[in-house]
Every structure is written in C-alpha cells, then in structure tokens.
Amino acid sequence: METAAIIRPQRVSVHGGHSADYCHHAGDSLDAIIEAYLNQKFLWIGVTEHMPPVSDAFLYPDEQAAGLTAAVMQQRFARYVAHCRALQARYAGLLTIFVGMETEAYTGAVSYAARLQQQFHLDYVVGSVHHVADIPIDLDIAAYHKAITACDGIENLYAAYFDLQYNMILTLQPSVVGHFDLIRIFDPDYPDHLKCPSVWRRICRNLEAVASLKLILDLNVRARVKGAIETYISAPILEKARDMGISVVPGDDSHSVDTVGRYIDEGISRLQAAGFSTDWPQPRLYSGASSSRGE
User: Fold this and answer.
1) Residue 136's closest CA among 108, 112, 104, 111?
2) Less CB within 10 Å around the terminal CB: N or C of the chain?
C-alpha cells in the first residue's frame, strides 16, 4: 500500500526584508537577504523597510549617533524602492517579490505614510505601531517604562496602543497589520493585561475592523528570535482572529541573512494547529502599484 506524500505548506513572508542598506539596526545587504529567501525556496516575500521619519524628532538614538537626518533617510528610502524594483526584475520567474514599507503611527506618521505610498507606488503597506505617546515602545525597557509613565499606567498604555492601531487601520487601510500585539514586548505579565476588559474590548474592535476591511494579520515570528515564548500574535488573539475568519500569514520580519526564515516553520505549524488555512493569501496590492514583480 502506497503512503500518500505529505504536502508541506509553502514558505512565505508577508513582513520581512529589512537590510543594513536601508535600516540602521539591520545587518547584511538587501541583495544577500533576497538571495537567502531564494535559497530557502520561499514562494513569495514582501520587502517592507521602515518608512523614513517625518522629522528629526523621531530619529532613534543609533540613527542620531550615526549622523542621520530625516532628510537623508527620506532620500535613502527613494533608493530603497528603486533597488527593490530592480530586484523584482532580476528575480522574475524565480521569486515573487512585493515591494512595500512598514509604517509608524506616531504624530504625523499615518498621513505621511499615505503620501509615501502614493509617491512611490508601493505594492502594499504593513501597518505597524512602534510608539505610544510618541515614545518608542520597542527600543528598550527604559523607553517602555517611560511610555507607561506617560500613559499613567500599563493598562492605559495598552489601551492607547490599540487606539493608535485602530486609527491607523481605519485611516491607512494597510494590506497587512504588523505584529498586532507588539505592546507586550517588555511585559512579562502580558497575558493578564491583554485580558483586562478595557484592553480586550479594544482588541476585539480592532479585529472587527481588520475583518471588515479584509486585511491580513502578520504572524510575526521575530518575537521568537528575541526570546519570547510565543510569536506575535498571542494565543487568545489568534483564536479570536480565527473565529472571525481573518487571514493570518507568517512573517519573519528578517533583519539579517541569519534571521531569514528563522522560526517560520514553527509559525506555520502553529497556524496549522490553530486551524488556519495555509493557502496563503497575497497582500492586496494598491491601485497603481507596479506590475513588474516576479511571478
């Protein structure tokens, strides 16, 4: 009796491709990172470099120390898009590449992201929140606690984060919502805080918006690279998203060659176990986006 062959889900990354060429806290060239995706036999990937800052006020400390300015990073972003378009042409027929960016949601960022998308005709956008009260929440523990103080408590920090995310979802309508619950990054008690009624109510509201707009959630495995016990999205939110019929697609959020594909198979297995389809939907392309991506 013949045993049926096991068909493994295709490797994809809906959120990845940060490189040292265009991201100060990443490593390795964009060319090397794309080659790594090809070598690992990914079906398709999204390259989603961080949007440039609106102003110098939102530079990270390492960017300031390197002498970067918002104007320089805006010019660098233009080079990034041109580079990605060249890679799309180079890898046509070998690897499908979607050219995108990862947004911010601090003061002025969402409207600026919309202008960038239109200016550069990006294929799609990953909508992310990295600041609350204009303070970066994923920089380090000190900045995280500064944000807690600014919000007058950690429950209020969570609430403010999900309010910013909700506004970003409705205003920008990104094809993908990135690392939905990043707010838990430095909080060992996050399971309890996610269950707080004021927080869980906002989570459900945001998921309803995602479902209504037919957006994709990124199952972001970079949390595991940084030592977290589970990926973003955490289990209760993932179960709620499944029950609401929301598509969840893995993203490695790679920042170097050695993080390309790391934990992606674990993420895929987690989605299978949770009952999600592994017939991965591709990000919805913006009207006017380039049609030159590799097929």
Assistant:
1) 104
2) N
CA distance 101 to 124: 7
pLDDT given at position 223: 86
Question: CATH code at 137?
Answer: 3.20.20.140
pLDDT one-digit tens code per residue, 47-84: 999 999 999 999 999 899 999 999 999 999 999 999 99
Q: How confident is the model at residue 289 (pLDDT cuts 50, 70, 90)?
A: low
Is residue 2 one of the residues assigned to a domain?
A: no
Cβ partners under 8 Å of residue 268, min gap 6 = 9, 11, 250, 278
In a domain, 32, yes or no: yes
User: In this structure, is residue 102 part of a structural domain?
Assistant: yes
Number of domains in the chain: 1
Q: Is residue 285 part of a domain?
A: no
Q: Is the pTM of this model over 0.85?
A: yes
The number of angstroms, rounded, from the C-alpha of 26 to the middle of its chain's C-alpha atoms is 15
Which residue segment(s) compose the domain that 22 sits in?
12-273
Whether the per-residue pLDDT at 281 is higher than 50: the answer is yes
Q: How many CB atoms lie within 10 A of CB 207?
A: 22
